[in-house]
Input
Amino acid sequence: MSAQTLTPSGAPAGSGAPARAPRLSALRPGVVLSALVLLTALAWALLPGVFTAQSPTASVGASLQAPSAEFWFGTDATGRDVFARVVHGASHSITAAVVAVAVGLVVGTTLGVIAGSVGGFVEEALMRLVDMLLAIPGLLLSLSVVILLGFGTTNAAIAVGITSIATFARLSRSRVISVRRSEYVEAAFGSGGTLPAILWRHILPNSAAPVIALAALQLGSAILQISTLGFLGYGAPPPTPEWGLLIAEGRDYVATAWWLTLLPGLVVAAVVLATNRLSSAIGQGESA
Amino acid sequence: MAYVRRRIGGALLVLVLAFIAAYILLAALPGDAVLARYGNPDLGLTAAQLAEIRAAYGADRPQLVQFFETAGSFLRGDLGYSIQSGAAVSALLAEALPSTLTLAALGLVSAVALAVAIAITATHPGLRGHRAARALRNLLRGLPPLMVSLPVFWIGIVLIQVFSFQLGLVPVLNAGPIESLILPVATLAIPIAAPLAQVLIRSIDEVLAQPFVSVARARGATNTWLLSRTVARNAVLPALTMAGLLFGELVGGAVVTEAVFGRMGVGQLTAQAVAARDTPVLLAVVVISTVVFVLINLVVDLLYPVLDARLRRSDAAAPTRRAAVAVR
Output
C-alpha cells in the first residue's frame, strides 16, 4: 500500500497539473471562455445598441414580465427591459471599474516606482503613507472618500481606486527594487546612464508584467466594489442602469420577480469570474 | 526583543498616520460639521446665530487646535456627536455593537468551518483515484474562485429568495432571534470563507508535496494522521497572515449584510452616516476599525515567529546577511 501511495506523492502531486501545460494555459477552454465573456461585456459597454434595440430607461411592455423570447431578462416594475438595462449598464459599471483601476495603477505605480528607485528617506515616507492606506479597511476608506466627494459613479470609482493604490505601490516598489539590483541595470548605470533614462529604458519595462496582472485582477474586484457602492445607493442616481443599482431596485420584488435580481447578479458574477480567471492566466504565463 | 519593539513602534506610527488621514478626510476637508447641520436656509438662522452656534461647538478655532482636541477626546473615549441626531457617537456605537459582534463572530466561525471543510476535502489524497472523486475534487477547487466573484449583497438577496420565498424554510417576517441570524451569517460567511479556503488549499498542496510527507507515508502513516499531525500545523500558518484581511472583509461584509437584511448594527449605522453625510459617526467607525485592524496585524506579526521556528532563525540571520553585503 505504501509503495503505491508513494509513487503519486513522490512526484509532487501539487505540481503535476500545472507542470503539464503552463505553455498551453492561454488556450485552455476556461481561459477562452473567460476571454469571450469579457469581450462580450466590453462590446456591451462600447456598442450597447448592437445588442439590444430597447431603451434602458423607457417602458417597453407590461411590468414584471418573466423572461421570454422578447424580453430575455424579463421586465421590471415600470416595464423596462431588464436585458437592455444590463447591456447599457455595462458601460457605466465597466467604465467606472476602468477609472478605478487607472487611479490605483497610475497613483500607486508612481508612488512605488519613486519609492523603489529613489530610496532613502523618500522611500521610507512613501511606504509609511502606503501602510496608512492599508490600515483602513477597504470599504470604510472608500466610504470616507465618497462622503467627501459626494455620490455618483465617477466619485465611487475614484473612491474604489484609492483603496487599491497601496497594493499597486507595494508591488511596483518590490519589482523595481529587484530589477534595480540586476546586473544589466548596474551595467547601464556603470556606462553612464542617468536614473530617469534607465528607469524608462530598463526598469519600467521589466517591472511591468506583474503590475499588469494585478491590474487585471483589480478590474474584477473594482466591478464588485463599485456595484456594492451602487447597491448601497452611493453611486449613480436611480434611472441610471448601473449594475449594483439594478440589483438594489429588484430587491423589493424578490418574492415575485426572481429575474430582477438573479440575472443581473449572474452577469456581474460571470464578468468578475472571467477577469479573475484571465488575471491568473496572465500571472501563470509570466511565471512560466 | 528588538523585533517586538520595532513592530509595536511601526503599528503606533501607522495608527497615528491613519488617524490624521481619517481626520483630514472626514473632519477637515468636508468643512464645518456645524454648518452642515444648521446651515440649511430652511432653518432660518441668521449669520450671527450661526456664528454663535459655531463658537459654542468650538468650530471657529484653527484646524490644528481642533485636530488635537479631537485626538485627545478620542483617546479619552469621547467620540464626538452625530450631526444627524445630536446623540453621542459612543452611545450609538454601544447600542449597535452587540448585534454586529454576534453577526461577525458567527459569520467568522462558519466561514472558518466552511473553508476548512472545502480545503480538506479538496486536497484529500483519497479523491485522486476515482473519476467521480476527481470531478468532486475539481468542483470543490473551483468553488472558492467562484465565491470570491459573487457580490455580497447579491448572495444575501438570492439566499432570501431561495430559502425564504421559494422553499419557505426561514421566515422573513416575525423571525425569532436565531432564525433571523441564519441567512445574514451565511451571507457574511461565504465571501470570507473563499479566500481562506484558497490559501488553505494552496498551502496544504505545498505541504503534501514536501519530502517529509512521503517519508511519513512510507513509514505507514494514514491520511488522517498526516493531516492532523504535520500538514495542518504547517498549512495553518499562511492562513494566519490572512487574519487582518479577513477583518477588513468582515467590516465591509457587515455593512452590506446589515443593509440587505435591514438589521440594526454598526454596519447599518455606517451606511446611514454616509447617506446623511454624518462625518463624526463615520470618523469614529473608521478610527475604531483601524485600531482593531492594526492590532490584529500586530498580534499576527508577533505570533508568527513564536509559531514557526524557521522564521526565528531567518530573522536572526537577516542582520548578518546585510552586514555581509555591506562588507562587500
In short: DSSP finds twelve helices and no strands in chain A.
